Structure formats: C-alpha cells, structure tokens
Amino acid sequence: MRKTKEEAQKTKETILMAALDCFSDQGYFNTSLDDIAKAAEVTRGAVYWHFSNKPEIFDALHDSLHESFIEMITKDLERDSSEPLRQLEELIIKLLKDLERNETKTRTLKLFYHCDYSGDLNQFKQKHQDNKYKSLQLMSSYFQRAQQKGQLNKTAEPEILTLTLHCFLKGILYEHLNGSTLININSHAERLIKQLFNGLNDCHASLGCKGNS
Amino acid sequence: MRKTKEEAQKTKETILMAALDCFSDQGYFNTSLDDIAKAAEVTRGAVYWHFSNKPEIFDALHDSLHESFIEMITKDLERDSSEPLRQLEELIIKLLKDLERNETKTRTLKLFYHCDYSGDLNQFKQKHQDNKYKSLQLMSSYFQRAQQKGQLNKTAEPEILTLTLHCFLKGILYEHLNGSTLININSHAERLIKQLFNGLNDCHASLGCKGNS
DNA sequence: TTGACAACATACATGCATGTATGTATAATT
DNA sequence: AATTATACATACATGCATGTATGTTGTCAA
Predict the structure, then answer these.
(1) DSSP assignment of B13-50, as one string?
(2) 10-residue block means of pLDDT along chain B (213 residues)?
(3) Tens digits of per-residue pLDDT, A63-115?
(4) Fewer CB within 10 Å, N side or C side of chain A?
(5) Through-space distance between the first and last CA atoms of chain B, rounded to whole angstroms
(6) How far does A27 lie from chain B, in Å, by closest CA?
(7) How far is the CA of A33 from the C1' of C18 (A)?
(8) Containing H/E element for A15?
(9) How far is residue B62's CA from residue B112's CA, in Å, rounded to a whole number?
(10) Does the beta-carbon distance from A195 to B211 stay under 8 Å?
C-alpha cells in the first residue's frame, strides 16, 4: 500500500484535479469528499490524508491559479515597453486567450466567480480577496508608467483606470465563464478590450478629460 | 391555527424575507429550511406549505427582483429622449443608486451573482438566463435609438456596445455587492459610468471608429 | 351551524456527509 | 534486518437536512 513520495505527490494532484472536475460539474457545495475520492479513484482516507477538509482543497486550487497569474503579469512587467498602455492591452488579450486554451485554468477561475464565501469558505475570504488586490496593483503600474511617459493626462487617476479595466474584465470573464452565448473570447473579447482602450486613449490622451466632474 | 387568506399571504412573504436574510448571511447552500423557518418564526411545516422546496424559494426571490428591473427600464423607455445615450447613462446611474438605497434589492441581486446553478438550482438556470437577456435587449434599444438619430456612427454595432456596457456593469456590481472596499457607488460608480460613456462617444460619435479591426 | 378544507405544527423515517478511529502494507530509516 | 513512520483503505459513530405523514385548529362556504 505504501507509495513512494513521488507517487504520493502524484495522487495528491490527482485528487486536486478530481476535485476541480467535481466542483465544476456539480458545484462546490454539492460535491462530497466521497465524490472527489471516487473521481480520483481513491478512498476518502486518501483525501483526508492529503487535505484536512473540503475548504482546504478549495484553497489549494486557488493558490495554484493565483500563482500562475501573478507570474505572468510579473514577467510581463519586466519588459519596459515604450507604450505601456498598448503593452497592457496586449497582456490582457494574451491572458484571455491563455485562459481559453487552458481548460484547467478556466474551470478553476470559474470556481471563484461563483463561489459563496459566506459558508465554510469564509475562513479564506480575506486571503483570496487580498490576492486579488495584489494582481490589481500590478495592473495599475502600467497606467503609472504611461503617466510617467506623458502618455496619459496628468489629471487621470491610475486607480480609477485600473478599476475601470478590472470591472470590465470581470464582466467579460463572468459572462464567458458562465457559458454565456453572448461572449466568445475569440470573436468578441479582443474587440471589447480594444474598444475600452480606445475610450481610455481618447479621453485621457492629450486633451483634458471632458466629462469627469 | 388556521389564518385568514391575507394573513397567509403575509406569512408567505415573511418566509421569503427570512429566506433572503438567511441566504445573505450564510449562503444558499448553508441554510436549511429550518433556519428559514426559525428566522420567520414559523415551523418547517409552514415553509413546506407555501413552497415545495428550497430551490423554489430561490426562484421566487428571483422573480420579484427581475420584475422590478424590467418595470423600471420599460417605464424609462416610454420617454423618447432626444439624446438616448445620455438617457441611458442617467438610467444606469439611477438604477445603481436605487440599488444602493434598497437593501432588499441589493441582497437579492447579490444572491444571483454568487449563486451556483450547477446543483439543485440547475432547473432554473435557463429561465434566469433568459430573463437576463430580456433586460439586455431593452438596454440595446437605447443604442439603436441613438443610431437612428444619427448620434452614433453607422458602423457601430449596438450589440457590441450593449455587451460592453453589460460587462462593465456586471463588474461594478460584482465588486460592489461583494462588499469590496474598492468601489463605493456614491463616489465611484458615477465617474466610472461617465468615463465609459465618454469612451463610447469619442469612439463612435461623428468620426469613424479608429481601432476596431 | 356544520362539514370541509385551508394553514399550519408536530412527529417520524430516511439518507447522506462528515470526521475519526483503526487496520495494513510498504517505503524509508537506522 | 528490524523498526518506524508513511500512505493510504476500511469501519464506525454522529448529526443534520430533507421529505412526508399525520395531527390540530380555525375559517369559510353552503
């Protein structure tokens, strides 16, 4: 019965992926640990050995996705483009298309868009929210760079711009992940993003911003 | 024990509001019918008398909110403003501020942003999504009017514009309802909306749209 | 006014999910 | 080579949520 350490690590990841499958199909609250165990072709004993309970499995899934995001953005920020706004625009589209290709990421992300933190997941609410803020702060640095390079009106507020982008992205992802027929990343997302950035450029570029009270 | 019809209708609504309270506090899946009954100061017998099960309570909450939204938009559409885009902008802000005031609506809406339709709620997924599309169609008619009045470039696509607005709104609401400290409707939402509409105007007004491939 | 039915309350049966305790075989350690 | 701890599987106890069946009281209709 006893497996080698590598094998044990492998079954742990098998359990994680099985959990993701179950959560995606039936939802977090509708999946029992036994469901996960059966999907991973182990028993609940194995699950309880690697994780203390269901919320911890959820948290493990979160971590893997978040680390991946942070890494992609951080690496992109190492390159100091002459046009930070265009760089950001390209990054966003790249992230979206990466999501579309990687089904594991898509399903994981979908989890966090529809999960209810008011139950047993409440213990992780703050942590996951903090992690989201970290990604946001990274985003805002693009706008700061653009402002420093004089490509953004001085009255523009990077925070507001980041929020705008963030809300917009959230909406797109929400619809896309929801399996909505409204949005198809290949045909729509790129145009939506471009439209948003056009708005930002036109509004904040050289002239003053017209409508902000 | 037997109550009059009016009293019965009242307890039914009491149960609905109690359910909303419970769902908001503990989440849909973490509330039992007994929780709801206790919150409404009745027994589970009363709950089972008025509703066949928990999903049906959820659906009843949905209906009340949706009807309210459709009514507000439909009434606004009766007025044929000379500037449909500005009219839409004002409507959005009005809707947001109405939401902020009406806590029942806020909590109900929050339910549907975080609910997981993959479980026992799956039976209502299609219906609720269809209802969402209805509101979206109403929104797009503002853009169509603007286009007819020549206030929107002829190459602009009302559907894409509606999607843009919808995604953006979704993001704002998601953050706001999530209790995010990032967004405060009073101080932020109005500016965010104005910024978005500035983008639309600048991009699609008289000149051609620059960046759309 | 009296039956019939509505509007619940109470009681019961069932199943499932959780957590833990214990068993076991084998890898790692010495 | 013997021991120990690991990596699970199995078994058990518990509690809770659901659904239904039945009881009870008052209302309304005739």
Answers:
(1) HHHHHHHHHHHHHH-STT--HHHHHHHTTS-HHHHHHH
(2) 89 97 94 98 97 97 94 95 92 89 90 87 93 89 91 79 81 77 71 71 45 34
(3) 999 999 999 999 999 999 999 989 998 999 899 889 888 989 989 998 988 88
(4) N
(5) 70
(6) 5
(7) 9
(8) helix A5-26
(9) 8
(10) yes
pLDDT band (50, 70, 90) for residue A122 = very high
CA dist A142 and A90 (Å) reads 12
Q: Is the CB of A74 under 7 A from strand C?
A: no
Please report, as a single letter, which amino acid is at residue A103.
E
Residue type, B14: T
User: What sign for the dihedral angle of Cα B58, B117, A180, A54?
Assistant: positive
| Both tokens assigned to A102 | 């990687």
Three-state SS string over B57-113 comes to HHHHHHHHHHHHHHHHHHHHHHCCCCCHHHHHHHHHHHHHHHHHHCHHHHHHHHHHH
Work out the end-to-end distance of chain A between its first and last CA atoms, rounded to an integer number of angstroms.
69
Cα separation, A195 vs B160, whole angstroms: 10
